[in-house]
Amino acid sequence: MSEPRPEKVAIVDEIRDRVGAAEAVVVTEYRGLTVSELAELRLAMRPSGGKYKVYKNTLAKRAISQDQPELAELLVGPTAIAFIENTPEGETGDVVGVAKALKDFAKASPELVVKGGLFEGNFIDADGLKALADIEPREVLLAKFAGLLAAPMQRMAGLLQAVPRDFAYGLKALIDIGGAPGAPADAPATAEEAEEATPAAEDAVEAEEAEEAAPAAEEAVEETEQADAAPAAEAPETTNEETASADAEQKEES
């Protein structure tokens, strides 16, 4: 048995390495497609990191039959394999984007048959690839996710704005009906005002008590004066009589 040609060995090694390194692998049959249509399909997959290449089934089976027997069974008829690798910008390939490109192209060109492939190291059939194609693109999912994150913050900002606004409306309503500080109705005196008013009230009470006590004091003074004056008035009369009697006695003796 002759040794395989180096060119074939290199192709087998290339397929094996690309299958092991790719984000995903899709096996297709391109029977009936023209060269220009295949070029169009390559352009549609490129932005998502899809690389589309035609291989001989014998070499492809030799490369993957040992590790991926289910995938090797799909290698029947004119076969082209899509490898989802890095995008032209160097970012990780988008499996959903490549699946969507294949699905859209198959609608316009039914000759393209998507058979199955590998996703995250596991075999996936044609229906699984169609389900991947129905998922919204990564940019749309990221935008929705960002919207979900921003929604609570927006609601919180709205609540923070509504609290002072509603408080102001409520306070104004209370003021209008006279039920809050600043309303037209008389408000109770503050502690400082009460302290200032206390001495004045005490002075007023003392003045009233003095006015009530004045007549009684005047009557007491008058009674005292009358009592003092009575003995003084009687004293001179008694003294004169005693003086006249003493003089008469002295005359008789002489």
Can you tell me about this structure?
This protein is an alpha+beta fold. It folds into two domains: 6-135, Alpha-Beta Plaits (2-Layer Sandwich), CATH 3.30.70; 194-248. Helix content is 65%, strand content 11%. A five-stranded antiparallel β-sheet has the order 2-3-1-4-5. A hairpin with a 2-residue loop joins β4 (113-119) and β5. α1 (6-21) crosses α3 (57-64) and α5 (95-108) packs across α6 (126-134). It is elongated and about 135 Å long. Mean pLDDT is 77; it is low at 230-239.
Task: Produce the secondary structure layout.
Layout: H1 6-21, E1 24-29, H2 35-45, E2 50-54, H3 57-64, H4 69-72, E3 79-84, H5 95-108, E4 113-119, E5 122-125, H6 126-134, H7 138-176, H8 191-253
Antiparallel strand pairs: 1-3, 1-4, 2-3, 4-5
Helix pairs in contact: 1-3, 5-6
- Mean model confidence by pLDDT: 77
Adjacency order of strands in the biggest sheet = 2-3-1-4-5
Q: What spatial form do the alpha-carbon principal axes imply?
A: elongated
The first-level CATH class of the largest domain is given as Alpha Beta
Order of helices and strands: HEHEHHEHEEHHH
CATH superfamily of the largest domain: Ribosomal protein L10, N-terminal RNA-binding domain
State which percent range the strand residues make up. 5-15%
Secondary structure tally: strands: 5
Q: Examine the secondary-structure arrangement and name the CATH architecture of the largest domain.
A: 2-Layer Sandwich
Instruction: Tally the helices.
Output: 8
Tell me the CATH topology of the largest domain.
Alpha-Beta Plaits
Spatial separation of the terminal alpha carbons? 206 Å
